[in-house]
Automatic annotation (TrEMBL):
One GO CC term on file: microtubule
Keywords: ATP-binding, Coiled coil, Microtubule, Motor protein, Nucleotide-binding
Kinesin motor domain location: 23-333
GO process annotations (BP): microtubule-based movement
Chain positions recorded as ATP binding sites: 107-114
UniProt protein name: Kinesin-like protein
Domain of life: Eukaryota
GO molecular function: ATP binding; microtubule binding; microtubule motor activity
Location of this fragment in the whole protein: 404 to 745 of 965
Family under the similarity heading: Belongs to the TRAFAC class myosin-kinesin ATPase superfamily. Kinesin family. KIN-14 subfamily.
The keyword Plastid is annotated on this UniProt entry: no
Length: 342
């Protein structure tokens, strides 16, 4: 098969650039087909256990059909919420040692970003997403260490819409309000309040959430019981706005403005992570609200994880490739068919 040649030829290159990536990890998650979709028409040609993914262009034939991408991990359509979280867990642990961790979900609307981060519901344990599982782990870990370190956990919840930051937990303060929490239940309660505030002004939650970034910052402060030394760590859980490109001809007015703001902030995020991955001396944080909000938690002693979410169907091929290209750019690993066919 054609794609096997691409994989062989790119493995060496991939290993060479791997070192560049430092603390940036990229996991790709493929959404399953939804009810009513034709399962035969997929653009996913191959997924390998070592993070390889080959997509096929439905409009081309021969060697130009395939394009290889490689990430730290690829989660197939059958993957469970638990499996996905298992590989995220070590990062969560590091927060208690004073690291800043950012976890993003990136992809077109409908690709499963919210499914991965929040889950389809929080009532069923197996459905729960990264947000809940991460916070649950965090509380368990703080409790297990409480004889040596006293931890305090504070949570915020904001939405970034049209380059404006809105606090979803309080209307009264200029900066995002910080809420002290002692358990996952406390956090769930806040999340519900935030969720209710998010729908204000939108007909449905989905309508609004696809066009705004939702950011859940978690700040951890630990005091060593013996030495009284203080350490701080943080976790930012970010469900990004839909990355689909909206043509100028398709929308006007308010929708066009929204689309431009989304484009601007997602490319600013890409530029920042790219600059960090390549250890560039200048990191362009100032170019969007999103990167300004995250400035202190990206870079330095920070760990970044990006879930790139893709749809399995052929019709999404163009968006899928654009999503995967964004991901390979931020991870510093750009492969693709072009290099294997000189
Ligand atoms: P996004 O947040 O990217 O717009 P959603 O998370 O809302 O996308 O997912 C779109 C639809 O696909 C939802 O109905 C969701 O329940 C479903 N879905 C997404 N990912 C999965 C998955 N891994 N397993 C089952 N259903 C999924």
């Amino acid at each position: 098969k054609n794609y096997q040649i691409i994989i062989e030829e790119n493995r060496r290159l991939y290993n060479e650039v791997q070192e560049l990536k430092g603390n940036i990890r990229v996991y790709c998650r493929i959404r399953p087909f939804l009810q009513g979709q034709n399962k035969k028409q997929t653009s996913i040609e191959y997924t390998g256990e070592n993070g390889e993914l080959v997509v096929a262009n439905p409009l081309k034939q021969g060697k130009d059909t395939y394009r290889l991408f490689k990430f730290n991990k690829v989660f197939g359509p059958e993957s469970t919420q638990e499996e996905v979280f298992l590989d995220t867990r070590p990062m969560i642990r590091s927060i208690l040692d004073g690291y800043n961790v950012c976890i993003f979900a990136y992809g077109q609307t409908g690709s499963g970003k919210t499914y991965t981060m929040s889950g389809p519901s929080i009532t069923s344990e197996e459905d729960r997403g990264v947000n809940y599982r991460a916070l649950n782990d965090l509380f368990h870990l703080t409790q297990s260490r409480q004889n040596s370190v006293m931890y305090e956990v504070g949570v915020q919840m904001v939405e970034i819409y049209n380059e404006q930051v809105r606090d979803l937990l309080s209307q009264d303060v200029p900066d995002a309000s910080m809420h002290s929490v002692r358990s996952t239940e406390d956090v769930l309660e806040l999340m519900n309040i935030g969720l209710m505030n998010r729908t204000v002004g939108a007909t449905t939650l989905n309508e609004k959430s696809s066009r705004s970034h939702s950011v859940l910052p978690v700040h951890v402060r630990g005091v060593d019981v013996k030495t009284e030394s203080v350490l701080r760590g943080s976790l930012h859980l970010v469900d990004l706005a839909g990355s689909e490109r909206v043509g100028r001809s398709e929308v006007t007015g308010e929708r066009l403005k929204e689309a431009q703001h989304i484009n601007k902030s997602l490319s600013a995020l890409g530029d920042v992570i790219f600059a960090l991955a390549h250890k560039n001396p200048h990191v362009p944080y100032r170019n969007s609200k999103l990167t300004q909000v995250l400035q202190n938690s990206l870079g330095g002693q920070a760990k970044t994880l990006m879930f790139v979410q893709i749809n399995p169907d052929e019709d999404s091929y163009a968006e899928t490739v654009s999503t995967l290209k964004f991901a390979e750019r931020v991870s510093g690993v750009e492969l693709g068919a072009a290099r294997s066919y000189k």
